[in-house]
Write a structure and sequence with these properties.
The complex is a heterodimer. In chain A, 76% of the residues lie in helices and 0% in strands. Chain A is an all-alpha fold. Chain A has one domain: MetI-like (MetI-like fold), CATH 1.10.3720.10. The two termini of chain A are 42 Å apart. The relative contact order of chain A is 0.14. Chain B has a single domain, classed as MetI-like fold (Orthogonal Bundle). Chain B starts with a helix and ends with a helix. By secondary structure, chain B is an all-alpha fold. Chain B has 14 helices and no strands. Classes of the chains: A mainly alpha, B mainly alpha.
C-alpha cells in the first residue's frame, strides 16, 4: 500500500464513521420535523412519507417559540455588549501592559470561568429575588450572564492581543498618539476578526445557558429558547414531536455554520491565552 | 518604548510613562475584576454561608445550624447515590470522549478533500445548544418509537417483543445519559486536541525524521510525551463540564428512575429549588468544590506544559 493510500484510509476511516455517528441525531431530527404527525411514531418511514412544513408553521403560529427566540437574542445582544465593554480593555491590558501581577491575574480570571453555574444558582436566585427584585425578568439574566462570558472573553482576547506585534503600537506612540489612542485606532481595528470571534462564542454561551434561566424565569412569556422548549413544549399537554425537532434545528444549524467559520480563530485565541 | 524614552531624553519622563502605564492597566482591568468578584466571588461565599443555615426558599437569612446540613446529607442514601453517580457519569463519559476525540483530532489536523464538511458534522453536537439537543434524545429514546430500537431490531440484537426502555430502567438510563454526555463533549475535546497538536512545532517532526524515529518508536518517545499534557487538559475540561453540569440528566431523566441517575447537580436543584431547602441544597452543591479545586490545580500544572489555554 502506498503512503498516500494509507493516509487516505486513516483520515477517512476515522472521520467518516465518527461524522455519521455524531451527526446522525440531527439527520433524524430533520426527518422527524418534516413528517406529518400521523407517521411520527413509525420509524420505518424514513424516506417515504409526505413531507410537510406544517410542523414549522405550528411552531411559529401556535406556540411562543418566536417570543423565546426574541428573548434569547435580546439577552444575548445585551450581554455581548456588556462583555465587550468590560473584557476588551481588560484583555488588552492583561496581554500587554502588565508584568508578573498581570499574568497571575490573567490565570485567576481564567480559573473563575471554571466555577459552574450549578454552584452559584441557589444563592443567586435569592439575591436576584430579594435585592434586585428581578424574579421572572429577563434583566436578571442580563445581570448574571456576564459572570461567565467575561472571563471567557478575556481569556480569548488575551490570546488575540498577544499576536499583535508591540512595534505597531510603539510606532503610533512615536507618531504622537496617546496610549488609549493607539488602542482605539491601531489595536482594535486589526483585532476585529478576533473580537467577532468573541462576540459569536459569547452569544452562543448565552444561548446555551440553562441553569440560571430555569431558576430565575417562571412565566412562559419570559422564557429563553433553551428553557421554553423543554418546559412548555414538552411538559405541555401536547407532544408535538415534529414541532419540537424543528424547534431544536432552527437555532442549531446556523450556530454550527458560524462555529465552523470561526473555528480556526477560536483555536488561535485559545492557544495564545492566559498561560503564555 | 525605548524610542519614546530616548526622544524625551530624561528619566523623569520615563518614570512618568511607566507610572501612566501602571495606572492605565489598573484602570482597564479593574471593572472586570470588580464584576467577577461581585458575580462569582460573592455568590460563592454566600453559597458557603447558606450551607451552614436552615434557609428556606423566599429568604436569604436562616438560623445558623453549623454542620447539620452536611451531617444530614452524608447520612442520606440518595445523596450518597448522587455522589457515586456523578463519579460514574463523569469518568465513564470522559473515557469514551478522550479515546474518540484523540483519534478524530489526529485525522482532522491533516489535509484532505471533504475536510470542511466532515468537520462540520463532527462539530455539530458542540455548536447546537445541549438543552435542545437533549430533548431530541428524549425522542430517540422514546419507548414506542425509539430509532435506536429500530436499528437494534434490524440488526437482530434485540427482540421486538421485549424492547429496552432506555430511560425507564436504572441501568439503561445511566448508560443513556452517559452516551449523550459523551456525544456532546467529544467535539469540544477534539477542538482542544487540534489546538494542542497545532501548537507542536514542525521541527519536532523533522528532528524525529532525521533521527529515523518512525512508527511505534516515534509514538512512544516523541508524540506521546508531547501530547499527554494536551490530553490531560482536554480531560480536565471534560471533567469540570460533566461533573458540574446538570442539563443532560435534568432533561433526560431528572434523576430517575428511582434516583438511579441522580447526580449532585440534579439533587441540589431538587432540594434547593423544588423542595425549597436552600441551605441543604447549597450544602449538596458545595460537594462540587473538590472537583473544581482538582481541575483548577491540574490546569495550572498541565496547561502551561501543553501550551494551550
Amino acid at each position: 500500500m502506498t503512503s498516500a493510500w494509507r493516509h487516505r484510509l486513516f483520515v477517512y476511516g476515522i472521520t467518516i464513521p465518527f461524522a455519521v455517528v455524531l451527526a446522525f441525531p440531527f439527520f433524524w431530527m430533520g426527518v422527524t420535523s418534516l413528517k406529518p404527525e400521523a407517521q411520527v411514531y413509525d420509524p420505518t418511514k424514513v424516506w417515504r412519507f409526505h413531507a410537510t412544513l406544517a410542523n414549522y408553521g405550528y411552531l411559529f403560529h401556535h406556540t411562543e417559540y418566536v417570543r423565546w427566540l426574541r428573548n434569547s437574542c435580546f439577552v444575548g445582544l445585551l450581554v455581548v455588549l456588556v462583555t465587550l465593554a468590560v473584557a476588551l480593555p481588560a484583555g488588552y491590558a492583561l496581554a500587554r501592559l502588565s508584568g508578573r501581577v498581570g499574568r497571575t491575574l490573567g490565570v485567576a480570571i481564567f480559573l473563575t470561568y471554571l466555577v459552574p453555574p450549578t454552584l452559584l444558582f441557589l444563592p443567586l436566585s435569592r439575591v436576584i429575588a430579594q435585592y434586585f427584585h428581578l424574579s421572572d425578568r429577563l434583566w436578571a439574566l442580563v445581570l448574571v450572564y456576564p459572570s461567565f462570558t467575561i472571563p471567557f472573553a478575556i481569556w480569548l482576547l488575551m490570546g488575540f492581543f498577544k499576536t499583535i506585534p508591540q512595534e505597531l503600537e510603539d510606532a503610533a506612540l512615536v507618531d504622537g498618539c496617546s496610549r488609549l489612542g493607539a488602542l482605539v485606532r491601531i489595536v482594535f481595528p486589526i483585532s476585529i476578526p478576533g473580537i467577532l470571534t468573541v462576540v459569536i462564542f459569547s452569544f452562543s454561551l448565552v444561548l446555551n445557558e440553562f441553569v440560571y434561566a430555569i431558576t430565575f424565569i417562571s412565566s412562559s412569556a419570559n422564557r429563553t429558547l433553551t428553557v421554553g422548549v423543554p418546559t412548555d413544549l414538552i411538559r405541555g399537554d401536547l407532544f408535538n414531536w415534529p414541532g419540537i425537532m424543528a424547534a431544536i434545528l432552527i437555532p442549531s444549524i446556523p450556530l454550527a455554520l458560524v462555529y465552523n467559520a470561526f473555528l480556526n480563530r477560536f483555536i488561535a485565541g485559545f492557544t495564545g491565552g492566559a498561560f503564555r | 518604548m525605548g524610542a519614546v524614552a530616548a526622544a524625551g531624553g530624561s528619566r523623569k519622563r520615563l518614570r512618568y510613562v511607566a507610572e501612566r502605564r501602571g495606572f492605565l492597566a489598573t484602570l482597564l482591568i479593574s471593572p472586570a475584576v470588580v464584576l467577577i468578584a461581585v458575580l462569582v466571588g460573592g455568590p460563592l461565599i454566600l453559597a458557603g454561608y447558606l450551607s451552614f443555615t436552615d434557609a428556606q426558599a423566599g429568604s436569604l437569612t436562616g438560623k445558623w445550624i453549623g454542620l447539620a446540613n452536611f451531617r444530614r446529607v452524608l447520612h442520606d442514601p440518595i445523596f450518597r447515590g448522587a455522589l457515586w453517580h456523578t463519579f460514574l457519569f463523569t469518568v465513564l463519559s470522559q473515557i469514551v470522549v478522550i479515546v474518540c476525540a484523540g483519534l478524530i483530532a489526529h485525522a482532522l489536523v491533516r489535509g484532505f478533500r471533504g475536510r470542511w464538511l466532515l468537520r462540520f458534522f463532527i462539530l455539530l453536537p458542540w455548536a447546537a445548544p445541549i438543552a435542545l439537543t437533549a430533548i431530541g434524545f428524549l425522542w430517540f429514546y422514546d419507548p414506542q418509537a425509539s430509532i435506536f430500537n429500530w436499528f437494534l431490531i434490524k440488526l437482530h440484537i434485540v427482540d421486538p417483543t421485549s424492547l429496552p426502555n432506555w430511560l425507564g430502567t436504572p441501568k439503561a438510563a445511566m448508560s443513556s445519559i452517559i452516551t449523550v454526555q459523551a456525544w456532546r463533549t467529544i467535539p469540544f475535546a477534539v477542538v482542544i486536541f487540534i489546538a494542542g497538536i497545532s501548537s507542536i512545532p514542525q521541527e519536532v517532526d523533522d528532528a524525529a525524521a532525521i533521527d529515523a524515529a518512525t512508527g511505534l518508536k516515534k509514538f512512544w518517545y516523541v508524540s506521546l510525551p508531547l501530547q499527554l499534557p494536551i490530553a490531560i487538559v482536554a480531560v480536565l475540561f471534560g471533567i469540570i463540564f460533566t461533573a458540574t453540569d446538570m442539563i443532560v440528566p435534568f432533561i433526560l431523566t431528572n434523576g430517575g428512575p428511582f434516583n438511579s441517575t441522580q447526580v449532585l447537580t440534579t439533587y441540589a436543584f431538587q432540594t434547593g429549588i423544588n423542595a425549597g431547602n436552600i441551605g441543604e441544597g447549597a450544602a449538596i452543591a458545595l460537594f462540587m468544590l473538590p472537583v473544581l479545586a482538582f481541575v483548577a490545580i491540574g490546569m495550572l500544572v498541565f496547561a502551561r506544559r501543553a501550551e494551550v489555554t
